[in-house]
Amino acid sequence: MTCLKFSVFTRALAIMTLLVSSTTLYMYGQEPIYSYFYRVYLRDKGDNSTGKYSALDLLSVRAVNRRLKAGIKVPDFRDLPVNKSYLNIITLSGLKLHSTSKWMNTALFKSQFSFDINAILSLPFVSNVRIVKSPLKKSGFNKKLDFQVVQSDFPPYDRPLTMINGNRIHDSGYDGKNILIAILDGGFLNSDVISSLGDLRLRKGIRKTYDFVNNNESVYNSSTHGTAVLSVMAGIIPDQIEGSAPGADYLLLKTEDVESEFPCEEDFWAAGAEYADSAGVDIISSSLGYFNFDDPSLNYKHSDLDGNTAFVTRVAEIAASKGILVVNSAGNERGNTWRNIIFPSDGDSVLAVGAVDGNGLISDFSSSGPGSNNRIKPDNVAMGVSVTVQVSENLIGRSNGTSFSCPVLSGIAACLIQAVPPAINSDIINVLHSSADRYNFPDSLYGYGIPDIVIALNELQKKYLTVPEEGIIIFPNPTTGQFEITFSIPPEKVTLEIISLTGSKLFEKRYANYAGRSVIITELQHSPEGVYLIRITDASGTYVRRIIKLKN
Questions:
Q1: What's the pLDDT tens digit per position in 415-424?
Q2: Whether residue 1 has pLDDT greater than 50
Q3: Residues 204, 184: Cα–Cα separation, whole Å
């Protein structure tokens, strides 16, 4: 887009108008309306270097530990902040800073008026400037988060879980506890009041909220799309909603401008992803995607679906390189002109999720692959037709979209990480692929198909657990209270009991349909030190072992 060049008089008049308008707005406590956004690409980070910062200067303990677990260098160049002096110089030109991306070494600036970018391009530390929003007429693309909620009793409310054997993971005690998930979406209206999220709120499982579109902490507005997504993951109402990860903790991050569709939303997505990384999330779940914009000259091309071109895809790939499991909707475009998956689902390390119905048949809307270089995309599919969601206290119903198949797999992935803590993001993607029903004959609609989470769990445990040749192993013993029982053969049905030396039964747990070959027991954490008996009964017989409880 060619920017308007003002005469001296016109420029002065425009500046005076800007000052008057801004003053009037600020008098009434309102933010000016910024109609133009510019992405500025910087050549370097100036005098910033990794030697100036420790890892904890830049990242949380959770973030550092996630990277160390995956063997990732921390910090690296991308962790360094964008150079502040560069930002200050650009701001002096009249632009206002909105956000930065340290990973991409870019800054997003905004203005009320069209700006001559040559003034910025002439700066020695600037490599490029791209306009990423302008005040053009809205297209239909800003309606992409619209969805319908209808009343239906079919298929069963828990079909999204039973289809992938996720109910067995839940029945085995894995619900995503201690896993941190960032949801990037367009708003979370009513998430602070609806009943299915009552337990989540009560235990303070919503750890942080932030709106990267408006730069404030208020996300309970503008859209119920994120609310529906969150209910699929964290919602609990007996016999109505069973979320895929009701025990996980969440960051609710608004990165989508529901009023328009421009590439600046990719910058908002980047800001959200970097915030999530710094906070130490394990998973980013994004039911968002990009390809066409209100300004057609900014549209992506199908040839860009190579995993390396789109700004948002490159950001998602960097997030994955930091050890985060990035899960993204494949898109709902197969019945439209675009047809294919959306960005950032084309990323090699992004888990792209398509949608099937309750019978496991591909939906007519689920975007097809492959990318431009014939990679297998989508990666997997999950139920995205007639998925139970809650968007208000009075509206619980069914909805369709890869927006809802995505959180099914995001949440169940959290349960896998909880069950096998050493597993890293690439492990999760690998077992979701290899456990799926089309692993040996993947295609451009189903990808590798519908995963079986019990098979996935067993594959992870084979990799990371020390499995006895026969019988069981209890470790650690002695213990301060938490220990793990590992079976040579997955027990399926098992009863666990803790008994004192005087014969008193302190704990009993029966699993009718246990998944995996390892059980973590925490019930001795608050018991006095001493010797206890552990009685384990499975299909192969009964085992009794002594365990020594140490002082905490």
A1: 999 999 999 9
A2: no
A3: 19
Strand partners, 99: 108
Alpha carbons 246 and 230: distance in angstroms, whole number: 10
Indicate the helix (H) or strand (E) that contains 234.
helix 225-234
Closest CA relative to residue 328, chosen from 373, 372, 272, 275: 272
| pLDDT number for residue 29 | 54
DSSP, collapsed to helix, strand or coil, labels residue 274 as helix
Cis bond upstream, residue 124 (ω within 30):
no
How does pLDDT run across 115-148, given as a tens digit for each residue? 999 999 999 999 999 999 999 777 777 778 999 9
Short-list 517, 412, 515, 418, CA closest to 461: 517
What is the C-alpha separation between 393 and 227, in angstroms, rounded? 11
The single-letter DSSP state of residue 365 is S
Structure tokens at 154: 């079919």
State whether 545 and 404 are in the same domain: no
Quote the pLDDT of residue 9. 31
Which residues face 107 on adjacent strands?
40, 100
129 inside domain: no
- In a domain? residue 278: yes
Q: Examine the domain organization and report whether 379 and 496 are in the same domain.
A: no
Euclidean distance between CA atoms 535 and 129, whole angstroms: 67
pLDDT in tens, 58-75: 999 999 999 999 999 999
Dump the DSSP string for 495-540: EEEEEETTS-EEEEEEESS--SSEEEE-TTTTSPSEEEEEEEEETT
Q: How high is the mean pLDDT of the chain?
A: 92
Q: Give the SS3 label for residue 264.
A: helix
In a domain, 58, yes or no: no
Residue 283 sits at the vertex; the CA angle it makes with 322 and 424, to the nearest 5 degrees, is 60
Residue that finishes a domain, picked among 413, 435, 461: 461
